[in-house]
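name: query_chain
kind: protein
chains: 1
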Amino acid sequence: MRYFLKLACLVLMPVLCHAATAQASLNGSFPVIASYNLEKAKVTLPDDFQGQFNLLFLTFESEQQKDADSWTPVVKNAEASRPALHHYLLPVYGKENFLYRWWINSSLRSSLPENEQRKTTIPLYLNRLNFMKSLKIDSDKEITVLLVDKHGRVLWREMGELNDAKRLSLEAALVSAGKTEH
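structure:
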């Protein structure tokens, strides 16, 4: 009997690992990125995401901030009822010179009060196309909202301004993620 169990584990383990890897590759995975939050603290993502689950708001143009803001009430409620959930605003820019980055970061910093928002706003200066490709993002014309686990694996995604269907989809994803947490 033990021999049969060992044999079954040897046969099934690669299949299960492949299925998990295939799912992650379908949804994308957050690449390793070193950056600074608006409190000027160095962060390495996804390692420094604070939550078991993290809701990421990726904006590609400053006009998309209003769409990110539309999610705020839902996010606050979700975080209040789920201590394992944290959110981050990640404005995505192309690789820029130091002066431009300083100017953008200073502008962002001045628009936010000195509180948790500065800690959770992390501008990313990188090759946008490679970044979008690694996360399976087809367009930068709308914000992308991702739910990732602590390892950066994408569990859920949506684009654009919040509406009822997206809210319900997020709530279902959070319930599903909470079940896998234990």
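note: The two ends are 29 Å apart (CA to CA).
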